Amino acid sequence: MTHDRWTSGDAELTNALRALYAPPADEAYWDSLESRILAHVAQKDEGTVWWAEVVEMARPGLAAAAALIFAASLALAHSRQVEVSSAYASIIAPVPTSMEASAKAASVGDGDVALHTIISR
Fold this sequence. Notes:
74% helix
């Protein structure tokens, strides 16, 4: 790794960011922060429990789950339909004749085709 990326502009920027994000040196700030946090904790309603927030999300969550189940069911039905139609097409479609058998039949006389096929196997 080279030190080319650390230029004087980067040092100036680093110093400016350090000054911007430096913690306050005044103790009064920390005391006031502590008192604000403790006041907020003391104001917290004891009747409010954590699962009360979850109740508000029950309906949207159930709606999303129902939509996902519906989409998965549609995808499953579509894949089964494609699989069935593919299987049906493979059974109904005529088997293509091989070029080798056609070429052998053309090169051998009509009476000798069966004999030639039996011997060639």
